[in-house]
Amino acid sequence: LAVCTLGSSTDEQRVDSLNGDVTKQFMLHYNFPPFCVGEVKPVRLSRREIGHGALAEKSLRPVLPAQDSFPFTIRVVSETLESNGSSSMAAVCGGCLSLMDAGVPISAPVAGVAMGLIKEGDQFVVLTDILGDEDAMGDMDFKVAGTAEGVTGIQMDIKVEGLSTDIMRAAMRQAHEGRLHILGEMAKVLAGPRAELSQYAPQHAEIYVNPDIIRLIIGPGGKNIKAITTATGSAVDIDDSGKISIFAPTAEALAKTTEMLKYYDQRPDLGKNYTAKVRKILEIGAIVEVLPNVEALVHVSQLDVKRVDKVEDVARLGEEMTVKVIEINGDRIRASRRAVLLEEQGHPWSPEDTARPAPRPRGDRGDRGDRGDRGDRGDRGDRGDRGDRGDRGDRRGGRGRGRGDSHR
What we know:
The chain has 3 domains: 2-189, GHMP Kinase, N-terminal domain (Ribosomal Protein S5, domain 2, 2-Layer Sandwich), CATH 3.30.230.70; 203-265, Ribosomal Protein S8, Chain: A, domain 1; 273-355, CATH 2.40.50.140. The protein is 25% helix and 28% strand. It contains 9 helices and 17 strands.
């Protein structure tokens, strides 16, 4: 029984090796419970299981897709339910079928077969697909796995002093014939990888954001990214370059996760309304945050449809207001609450309105009454030639006094 499970990049196995920490994208776990051979023993991991699992894993690894084109973590678990032959080669065949059934785009199907040997003097017989007794009483256990084109894994145990070239040629030839036969039987069930991933596999997508906003996506202490993964059940892997890998349980969760992440990497659209938070109060207006890390100025003349004497009368620090983006000039953005209020009154806004400054209402000046007849101011006449007024000196010292004049 072979089961293939696909996970996100965060599910990779971390191995503390002699060469340092390494990760494994592909894992094959081989289990050989005692009941498969009719025995009752404690169920615990053995060196035999580790070795057989490593052989099956290395036999399948060459046909797996590159991580760049298939970023999923792959785990195959092979459960031996009954054994009277090579269960490790059965793990290769079953593991290959499970990979193809899951939609993993392997380059070619892989099968394996165990070859045996009976040798007496110079005479020998190579056995194909040996049983348990042939393994126990024979002189060789030679496991060969591969595709129709070549070998991907071998492992040999022998009980004789050595093998001749003729024996090896015969063993490899028969192993190739046996492998082709098994591949043919496998093809009757599933000839190649399914065109699409299993419906139970995680949904995957990659998006790219400005690296400068990664800190906003993560948030203080990881607050923002934790909120996203908790709300959607998705796994998110963020690279310093701005590449974000998303693994979601469903297509709906993938779309929601993508939307929540892109919220932090938006630019405002001209003429669009936003619910903004007041970040700063200035004498000329209010600074509001229309999008994460995107601020706009709401001029005092754009705060209301009526005259606003003090910005604090309309905008208070930390409060939210609905504003319309009315101008984008590089990184300088202007917004208007007045335009939103006018729209609610049936006066739609257009970009041309930005070119015309908002009129400042003059208020009700009341009835100024009858100011009466101010009379005829008459002809003020010709004021004539005022003549030469002379040198008036420096007038800063007083009328009629020059700078040098002094009176004590």
